[in-house]
Design a protein that fits this description.
The structure is a homodimer of 342-residue chains. Chain A has 342 residues and is an alpha+beta fold. Chain A has helices at residues 9-12, 14-22, 72-89, 109-125, 177-195, 208-215, 222-228, 244-255, 270-279, 283-289, 305-311, and strands spanning 32-34, 41-43, 50-60, 93-103, 129-137, 143-153, 168-172, 237-239, 257-262, 296-300, 315-323, 328-331, 337-339. Chain A is 35% helix and 24% strand.
């Protein structure tokens, strides 16, 4: 490999590299209705009116979790949450999960069982069958992977790239909590390491909510369930995994629209605010850029807000879809306009 | 985790642990026709007569491949081969693949593109669309994962646990070659390390076939293609991934049968034999226990052998399915009977 160009992924940019790879794809198949670069994979067999949905992910020790503060039985739960939400955001219902666990020597069979119990707990939570598994060796780090299959009637499919100007931008629950939880866990780990004490017990009781959001988040199946009893459907929706701004950008670029966000309207829990205060950080950054919120971002025709609120109340209107020409703008509480597109 | 029982996976046994985990599964779904412990996952949507098939796998650097002799553009090809064969052995046709790549810092964007090209080459070979991808960071090792979806008419589904006494046990191609290739690569790597020379060039020209079988194996789609023009169907079939004996055991235990194998009938290439000779090892062990052959093991009613040979010739009859009471036996060329079941 000597004398060849070496550009790190960081230099190239992960998203740019993902786009470049997606453009290299040669073979297309009629069964694939929505493929690479379009969010959750949507397929349909020729004889069927229902679609299958698929999403998969990997968690690597040292990158996505730290065994010094992540209990083993939470890992599989979190992994399934991260992909179940993709299917819920598509209007679908997961039914089958396959699981891969690459186990380093430092883990015992009993520990693998604990990991498995987390997958099983998530499978019960999301009503899916664990339909396949692979157990393999790993030299140093624990690696978990999972792939989730679900279904949706084609008429009920919700996609990220169908937002229309004038629609409200809405979000379930509150944002930034997972990042706040991570901040606390990292701080307590550092204190524990510095204390050198075996009996050190971290003080987490004031932060139970944000820590639970970091370690054992639950996917939002309730939005779908509420809507299914109505004729309401989002214009577009996406699962918030890499941070609000990242996901809004995907929706609006995909839909060929702009947006404005009202930053004071972004829902942030008191506990998340308290963490940001303690850390002397800007809580808006947690909410705008923090990953792993696992809430659902969706757009809704303006007239439907009240109808939705009659059946489902845990959402906030945080902005509006604009024509593409009006760009991407955040309105702050102080009356400032921050442009993200230039 | 102190004072808790610590049994290593080795002590427990990987297969025993997999079985124990499979038995912990709580939730079942009607869409899942064949789930955990039954080989390739088979699902069916309520409105469909066709089934979907799924198989996934992970490759970890240092466990499943070594970057000092595995070219980057072969890794994805090999991974897709390893799971495409599962779908072919089920009588199915893959159509969509999702891919995960966890990239350590030592790899450049250009190297990730080379890996991707291997996936794309396999996608063309197996006529599948790469329908989704995830690029994530890794601290030290390269990890690849993939999940493949395919389809099969329910009437054409072939499963591993439907072998019947009296059927012939057949295998495509030849066995043990991937293990022979690995032996050569490991030896040449050792010589290279010992030489300390920058310009050391390994002598691989006499071993091209076995090295190709190790680094860039191709899944057997030809058996399916040949059979689809006939009314022939295997009784049972399985993709040979963990070694012939492992897979025969799965077929026969699953089917509630025994078997006898004629070891002189097991197809082994001349090059594989030559490697075993050089290594002073028993070539039968390569063929019986060597992993990653990616051939198909199948059973066939006795009368169908000639009919199959008329459309597909690259298979050998290596034994027979017996009633369970007759056990699991290998007949050697020297007239010995080796019992595997007690």
């Amino acid at each position: 490999m000597r004398n060849k160009p070496f550009n790190s992924i960081e230099e190239t940019g992960r998203r740019q590299l993902e786009e470049r790879l997606a453009n290299l794809i040669g073979r297309r198949r009629d069964e694939v209705l929505r493929g690479i670069g379009k969010g959750t994979t949507v397929c349909r067999l020729p004889d069927s009116t229902d679609c299958t949905l698929q999403s998969g992910s990997m968690l690597l020790e040292g990158v996505h979790f730290d065994l010094s503060y992540s209990p083993l039985h939470h890992l599989g739960f979190k992994l399934l949450t991260s992909i179940a939400g993709d299917l819920y955001a598509s209007g679908g219902e997961p039914f089958a999960a396959t699981i891969g666990i690459a186990v380093p020597n430092k883990l015992s069979s009993e520990m693998v069982e604990q990991i498995w119990q987390g997958f099983d707990a998530a499978a019960r939570e999301y009503s899916v069958e664990i339909s396949g598994s692979e157990l393999t060796a790993s030299h140093q780090i624990l690696v978990l992977s999972s792939n989730l299959t679900g279904k949706v009637a084609e008429a009920d499919l919700i996609v990220p790239d169908h937002a229309r100007p004038g629609e409200l931008i809405c979000v379930t629950g509150d944002l930034g909590a997972a990042m706040a939880g991570l901040r606390i866990l990292v701080r307590e780990k550092k204190l524990w390491e510095e204390s050198g004490e075996d009996g050190f017990s971290p003080d987490l009781k004031d932060f139970e909510y944000v820590i639970q959001r970091q370690l054992a988040p639950v996917a939002r199946k309730d939005l779908n369930e509420a809507m299914s009893s109505t004729d309401l459907r989002p214009g577009a929706a996406i699962h918030i995994k890499r941070g609000l701004i990242h996901e809004i950008d995907l929706i609006c670029r995909g839909s060929g629209t702009g947006f404005e966000l009202y930053s004071p309207a972004i829902p942030i829990s008191l506990e998340t605010r308290k963490v940001a205060d303690e850390m002397k950080e800007d809580v808006d950054r947690y909410a705008l850029y923090g990953g792993e919120d696992f809430e659902i971002l969706f757009t809704l025709p303006e007239n439907d807000e009240e109808k939705l609120r009659a059946v489902f109340d845990d959402f906030s209107v945080i902005g509006k879809v604009l024509p593409e020409s009006e760009g991407m703008v955040i309105q702050t509480g102080e009356g400032e306009s921050i442009r993200l597109d230039g």
